[in-house]
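Bug #77: duplicate submission created two jobs. Keeping one. Sequence:
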Amino acid sequence: MNAAEILLSVGVDTAIAIECEDRRVTYADLRDRVRRSAQAWQAVGLGTGDRVIVFAPDSDDWAVAYLGAIWAGGVAIGVNPRLSMPELAPLLKECEARFVWCEPNLAQDLRGLVATVPGGPAVVSGGESDWTRALADAEGIDAVQLDAEDPALWIGTSGTTGTPKGVIHVQRVVVNAHSFACNLAGLTAADRLYATSKLFFAYALGNSLFAGLRAGATVILDREWPTAERVEEMVEKHRPTLLFSVPTLYNKMLQTGVAARLADRGIRHFVSAGEALPLAIRQGWREQTGCTLISGYGTSETLCLMLYSDDDSGLMRPTPLTEVRFNPDIGADLPQRIWVRHTTVATGYWKRPDAQVDFDNGWFSPGDMFLRHPDGRLEYAGRNDDMLKIAGQWVSTLWVEQALSAHCGDALHQLAAVGVESADGLTALAVLAVAAPGRWAEARQRVEEGVASLPGHRRPRWVHWLDALPLTPTGKLQRGRLRSLHERHAAAAA
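Kept job's structure:
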């Protein structure tokens, strides 16, 4: 078995596999380029199981280098190309990669960085290099056949609560990568998939690139970083039929009027994931586009979406082929971690034996908490340390964030709630907020009104105003830093 070979086994030769800028790559062309890329990888010394970092903007070249490494028996790792060299250095040491593939403009900086890393990887790029010559001479090779449980790719966790981890996915990961899109979004070979998130992020890699190729459809890639305006440009030019994005960007599209202009562009389904989808965004999207957002839940460890909701309740069901189990000793009315099983679930983490308890014979337990409803649906309640007992009642920081965000509307740019210990030793809530530009006074007033409208046990005791909240490279909130930020601002206020 070879994951790259499986992904490229379906598409009709003349069908378009990837569109990027003005390039249209057919499945026949993509298969040929991946086969030749694999031979070039082996020519420069890639062995079975060797790790390859792909450090570049999304493009068809990115896909060819990435899939070519897997085809050749290597293990591919997509990395955020916006990382600075100092940010990239510890990652190079951690994953012990054999090669880093990049575009020519970054090669010099990368070689300088690699020279400082003992046993660091070789830099592979275009221009006058062994890689370019090997690629020019390559005629293509058959895919290296491996066991279904042999590594195929790694994905870095987002690091929202601490140090990112390397998630190990094996060759079978792609077999059913299209199950969500096919069964819940009606994906067929005639579809055109566009994800605003980048390919180093599991959401885009699994649910757009892998799902699209697995179904023989067209995958649209963009080198540029997403904005509401850029999404509109991409939709106008490439006419996707399935669009995958995140709540923050959907909200920006609502605020800028982009959402309404997408209403008649032929997009059948809009999918949201990466963070919880507020009800206000779901309702606003339906009002402006006439389409209902499908909200999904997945992680780097699951690659694809495991749970979904398609109504205003926000309550979630398992996606097709996903099994869910619970701790039978915890009552249905109490929040708990769940376990999920699907063929896209990873086998574990790289060199993190203490975290391996989250994996169990094909099952994985995310660090998020859920409440079980009588009809079997699940209510997302945030991470384990986001679920608090205040005044004898359960409170999720997520619930507080959503209520205040809905009350404040676009006067608020960012908001996060965190559980902290008060001077009397009891658990309390603190909120950290960022006002929209030029609207500080309005945002402050709305937050005060919103706090007053909450039930007593859900009211934050502190509200701190900041210039920005800390984000991960994937744009997700770094919740692990919120408590220390509260402590610093509370001390300054005192």
